[in-house]
Amino acid sequence: GAAPASKASRAREEAALSVDSSIFDYDGVYDSMKEGQRSIQAKHEKENAKRDPKYMSASFAASEQRKIDRQRAEAKKIQREREQEGDLYENTESFVTDAYKQQMEDIRKAEDDEKKNESSARQKNKGAASFFKEMLGEQDRAHQAAVEASIRPAASTTEPKEESDDNESRRKARIDEARQKGLDVRTNEENEVVDERSLLSAGLNTFSNQNKRQKTESDERSRRNDKDRDPDDLHHSHRKLPEMRDARQAQRERQSRMMEEQMLALQKEREEEEAKQEAERKKAIVGKKRNDTDRIELARQRALERRKNK
């Protein structure tokens, strides 16, 4: 058997139990760990059970749309057949079942929903078009500013000298006019006015507003250009909306025509198969009658031979 625990081992065990009574309960700790794992797993399974299918809703919607398209194709085919018949069955009594009424109501609702979806799509696309218009306008204005900035230095190389000469002549004229009126205008060695107040006090504060006027005219011209340019350059996204709508309508009509052609082809095959079966049935009936006639003739000949032999 196992050797008895020593006194020191028992003392250590008692000290550990005094701190935690379940310190040696390995099975209990293991069960509690597993219980936590099982609770988490059960929680996940419960969540997965409540979760809806990820792609089945779209699949069901597509199947329902195909069913409605097929019904619409059948309704158009029936309407076309009625138009071809004309007044052939005008005086006959017609019956409309509740199922047919419900089917036509479903088709009408589907068409209304389709129109609403197209309208909402147009509204969304309109917002996108406005966004792209603003973005293109910003790019165009930035490009125009860059072009003007590249042109401005070349023009400024020829204008400063003329502008400085004009300013110098105007300044000399102002000084001479002030001195003629008896004002004390002080200048330095370079003939620059030391105190500008001597000119202002005489009422000669008629400074040119040429720079300000030029800036105002430039801003007005740029605003005018932006206003004239936006409608021509930035309406391409609006023009795309009718094209996209027409493309969807054309695709839908092609699908309806293809479905109608398939239905007509199936109906034609069915009629040909029925005609073939009817021809085979008639042929079998004719062959059977011919066999019966031959059998009767043989029996009659045998009967005549028996009479002769008697």
From TrEMBL:
Keyword terms: Coiled coil
Family statement: Belongs to the NSRP1 family.
Keyword Ribonucleoprotein among UniProt keywords: no
One annotated GO biological process: regulation of alternative mRNA splicing, via spliceosome
Protein name: Nuclear speckle splicing regulatory protein 1 N-terminal domain-containing protein
Region span, Disordered: 60-295
PANTHER family linked to this entry: NUCLEAR SPECKLE SPLICING REGULATORY PROTEIN 1 HOMOLOG
Ranges annotated as biased composition (Basic and acidic residues): 64-85, 103-121, 167-198, 214-260, 276-295
Domain Nuclear speckle splicing regulatory protein 1 N-terminal: 11-126
Pfam families per UniProt: NSRP1_N
UniProt lineage: Eukaryota, Fungi, Dikarya, Basidiomycota, Ustilaginomycotina
InterPro entries, per database record: NS_splicing_regulatory_protein, NSRP1_N
Protein origin, superkingdom: Eukaryota
